Amino acid sequence: MNVGYVCNQSCVHCHVNAGPGRTESMTEETAREVDRFIAAAHARVLDVTGGAPELNANFRMLVLAARARGMEVIDRCNLTVMFEPGQEDLADFLAANRVRVVASLPCYTLELVDRQRGKGVYEKSIEAIRRLNAAGYGAEGSGLALDLVYNPQGPSLPPAQEKLEADYKRILGEKFGIRFNSLFTLANMPIQRFGSMLVSKGSFEPYMALLRSAHREENLESVMCRSLVSVDWQGYVYDCDFNQMLGLALRVAGRPRTHVSQLTARALDGNPIVVRDHCYGCTAGQGSSCGGALA
Asked: Each residue of 125-141: pLDDT tens digit?
């Protein structure tokens, strides 16, 4: 569920074009419609993203409702949101409700993080991870999962996830004493802000050629669009978050687009998936849907 494009950061690689100047944000009425569908579909996982999802006024209501049903809840957190007004208790709220945190930290060095995400982001991100650690995240036996997300600085494929995770844990542990559970490596999607940057530098076609040449057929078994429904801030549904950003709606019963209030779980059995060239971003190399490497 993408609850809106409002964000306190404007990252170079952002496939959502999120930022402080965006105003699109899910209303309470739409949030409750989505919650009704979640209950009817007996969904097992609620994966909340944005923008910075925590800045949506309905974020905590959605978390509490999903957790009351026993669902796993994932918060796609940019870390620095914890320093925004009203978010001072965010780490404690997430821990109290046993929310899994998937947090963006595109490198373990200050220079590269600030280059991609903005000046001062690295130091705030490290402090935010410390807050999460203090709340129990990443501690053995706590059951509070904290995963970090890496993405390349430019038009290249991510390195091997397992080796990079070991480097992250060693360097961040030695330098800052912080801990986390897993690292996800994601390929940059050639759409929206990152796609525009590629076009401006004449790198769009070479990057697409790289993704196509690295395609691995076996990754098709594990891509997120096979089992996920993506809901936008207005309540319309898509096969994945990337299709959502391109306006490629999930097709049900011949409708050009479908609202979550019109959706039933049964209607999606065997439903075709909308595919375009950007899908190579998930199937290239190790593959990288929102859960990191597939192969």
From this structure: 999 999 999 999 999 99
Q: What is the DSSP letter of 39?
A: H
For residues 160-187, one letter each, b for 16 or more C-beta atoms within 10 angstroms of the residue's C-beta and e for the rest, the string is ebeebbeebbeebeeeeebbbbbbbbbb
| SS3 state of residue 247 | coil
- Per-residue b/e over 103-116, b at no fewer than 16 CB within 10 Å? bbbbbbeeeebbbb
pTM over 0.70: yes
Instruction: Please state, in angstroms and rounded to a whole number, the distance separating the CA atoms of residues 116 and 229.
Output: 29
- Contact assessment for residue 94 and residue 75, using Cβ atoms and an 8 Å cutoff: yes
Any domain includes 20: no
Range of the domain at 186: 28-293
The answer to whether residue 185 sits within a structural domain is yes
Q: What is the CATH number of the domain that holds 111?
A: 3.80.30
Residue 4 lies in a domain: no
pLDDT digits (tens, 9 = 90+) for 61-116: 999 999 999 999 999 999 999 999 999 999 999 999 999 999 999 888 888 888 87
Q: Which of 74, 76, 68 is nearest to 49 (CA)?
A: 76
The CA radius of gyration of the chain, in Å to the nearest whole number, is 18
Determine the residue type at 174. E
What is the rounded distance in angstroms from the CA atom of residue 183 to the CA atom of residue 149? 6
Amino acid making up residue 37? F
Residue entry with tokens 């200050």:
110
Alpha carbon distance 220, 202 (integer Å): 29
Tally the domains of the chain.
1
